[in-house]
Amino acid sequence: MAPAFGKLAGRTALIAGMMAAALSTAPAHAADVPESDDPIKMTIHDWTGQALTTHIMGSVLEDMGYNVEYVQADYLAQFAGLESGDLHVAMEIWETTGKDALTASLKTGDTVDLGETGMKAIEEWWYPKYVKEECPGLPDWEALNDCAELFASPETHPKGRYLGGPVTWGGKDEERVEALGLDFEVVHAGTDAALFAEIQSAYQRRQPILAWVYTPHWAPIKFEGEWVEFPRYSKECYEDPSWGPNPDKTVDCGKPRGWIKAVGWAGGEEKWPAAYEAIRNFNITNQDMGEMIGKVDLDGMPISVVVDEWMENNRDTWQSWIPKN
Amino acid sequence: MTALTGVETRPAVVRRPTVLLWALTLAVLLALWFAGARMEWLAHYPDEWVLPLRDWVSEAMEWLVKEATFGLFTFKEFTRGIAWLLNVPLQACLVLLAHGLEVPLGEESSILIPPLSWLGVLGGVTWLAWRVGSRGLAILVGTCFAYLAVFGQWNSAMVTLSSILVAVPVGIVCGGLLGILGYRSHAFERAITPVLDLMQTVPVFAYLVPVLFLFGFGPVSAMIATIIYAMPPMVRMTMLALRGVSAEVLEFGRMAGCSERQMLWKVLLPSARHSLMVGVNQVIMLSLNMVIIASMIGAGGLGHDVLTSLRRLAIGDGLEAGVAITVLAISLDRLSQAVANRGATPVHLQTEQGFADRHTTLLGIAGILLGTYVLAFFIPALRSYPDQLVIDTGPLFENLVAWVNVHLYIYLDAVKSWLLINLLIPFKRLLIDAPWPGVAVVLAMAGWRIGGWRLGALVASLAIFIAVTGNWEKAMVSAYLCGISVVLAMAIGLPIGILAAGSERFHRIAQNIADTLQTLPSFVYLIPVVMLFQVGDFSAMVAITAYAVAPAIRYTDHGLRGVPGEVIEAAKMSGCRRGQLLWKVKVPLAMPEIMLGVNQTIMMALSMLVITALVGTRDLGQEVYIALTRADTGLGLVAGVCVAFLAIIADRLIGAWAARRKRELGLD
């Protein structure tokens, strides 16, 4: 027994010594960071921007001394995993598409809001620039009805066809069409991929198309186009019928521009407090993100290279996220 | 129409009441239709009447996850235990094939024990293929694995292979055991058959959510979903195969004094080996079918590559990863077939051989793996395939699709618009407007005429269940999409099947086409289809048809080849011309088998519904997909069961018809 005890004591001393060493060399870090060596599991979805955000945050956490593991998970199905603690951090929940799921999940008390990421989601009805030649009234929404036929397809004729996002994204487009009296029919794409596939194909043929496009995304970088200008969104517009051009209906305006938030497993708050603090401090602009997405999706650079490059050039920015005490 | 001449063999007397009955049924349907204009509840099932079944299911699930307990441990702990257990072999495979192992040495440093060399794995499987099969097989398997390396798919492919290597044996063993139980006890067989039906027809998306809740997030859950999906054919084939063992063999076993256990392991299973392999083959194929869906819940690997590439609209990259899945499927399938067909050395000869002689195959693999592993420490190019040598065909396919899109679009668009206006939209209207009680009556009538009152009652009550759970209209959209696609798939598949039955060379080509269509992830062609035909029903129809055409080809081919030689001989002697031989003899005789092909085509079409929801259809598939994204267990399972019921209605009606026709033709 005795030698065993001695060994144990020795190891404790060693660890204590090393902690002291860590303290002296890196005063910026709290004494007990990382609080736990268990890997923080961060989710990766199927769009580039999210992978970039997650890898940047992951690199910062690794720099702080945490173990990080990236797990592929579906954007909305991941909430089940975040609630049970199988997954720990999701970096991008968009107000525009994931608000309901997020609210429901936060209500269980098993997940916590990790704050806004600084990026702003913009999404609206969008058309390629060449459409303007045939429909010069754009981008004003009141010009849409004059050009409805331009966007028609056999299924929607004589109404115009507006290609909306997946049903699960919400967006109130049916209500908008009715409230603003637009001669359009909303067709929902099943997935993001299908949506942009159709936009790309129409763009190649220079065929008029009206579709739901959002940013940060590669599409508005790659394709030249504009967003339709609806009456500007306000909270009253969605709640008060008397607001806006249609006195009897709500949703007679454009879409809200929304936050993009990070969310985490509630248990992590105690397990890795400093890490969660750093994630809350995460902040990046649409501009930066757009540039990085362009480098990956359009120039074909690997994600890891783009992330390393950003980390190198923006040392001050991400250093400031790390909590000081 | 000549194909139906066989009908005339029935005596005319029986037909008259049938015609009368059908006329009556149609009259009822039309009456209900007109009444529907006045009585809204006939035309559209009222929302107030909807049974809140999905809420009950969600609550039951909540209870299962949060409260159910066996006393010592909770239900969730139990399922998590299973997940942990399955994770062990999976991690082992991953370490060996893909990731290697990082061994920490002290605080700062660690050494990475690398995974097996790519050349070693390639050499190993090629050697295995040569030993168990032929030189041809070795070349095929070698080329397949070389594809994975040369096209830069190696690492992802090994991740996918790891989960297949665990899921397939588990599926085979569990399926086999259940099958043996079913063989021993008829009561068990009766109990398990409907469960198997549901397992095969409820879309995977529907039970993905409960699986996630119970087994946690990650590759293991994906694997469990794969096993649930891929196991049923193994259970069925085991029961069938064991029943099929000939009486003499059984008699011989008994005479030799076998105990029950010896009888099973030494007599029954070995003699049923060939039929059992059909089950194994199905497990492999279905597991690989699941790769894409599994990657949505964290399996990674090739499925994830396909999804991310298509998200970027990099069609070429998606295709490369998709073909990698096909290539894996084909090599595993051919290898397993070769193992089953191998003539084993008789036992009395084995004792005369030395250890090395008996285990050449295994020793060879071990040697190749070890050799390349050690060599790789000196030659890094053996460790991981060098990036400079990777071929990238991505831009080629993107340009191809772009070219078709720009230059051929007007023609495609014309065909699409014509079909939409004249066929799809009217048919859709018809089905949606049909009154639900009327459709139930027609189904009951059909069931009764074909298979007796029990069948009639079954199909009618399944149809009413769909209405009662509030899914009628969506189910009709599903029926319309599948119906049109099946007709189209048969129109394409039948002629190909007939050609394949006539010529050996064409047969082989058709086989390969069918294999590829079934294993190439549909998502790969879904996106180009959307580019050419826009989001909507038409794209969904094209994708479903492409997927469902495989069984139409296979069963037609198989059925025509199965027509007894004597009958053909007799037909030739009585002076049939070639056309007559085909249409008046072969096709009518093969009709029951072809109808089974139709049946399978319908099953395939229904299983594609959920995938086409990704394009944007508004049917049951979309309901299931929405449920997945909202993690709503009840919604998903109920909509999934409705899809299953559509499938079961079609299956029972066609199955009963084919069985009756077989009896009439004396083919039993």
TrEMBL record, chain B:
Belongs to the binding-protein-dependent transport system permease family. Pfam families: BPD_transp_1. It is a multi-pass membrane protein. One of its GO terms (cellular component) is ATP-binding cassette (ABC) transporter complex. SUPFAM superfamilies: MetI-like (SSF161098). GO terms for biological process: choline transport; glycine betaine transport. The chain crosses the membrane at residues 19-36, 111-130, 137-154, 160-183, 204-230, 283-303, 362-382, 454-472, 479-503, 523-550, 594-615, 635-654. One of its GO terms (molecular function) is amine transmembrane transporter activity. Keywords: Cell membrane, Membrane, Transmembrane, Transmembrane helix, Transport. It comes from the Bacteria. It is found in: Cell membrane. Residues 153-336, 475-654 form the ABC transmembrane type-1 domain. This is ABC transporter permease subunit.
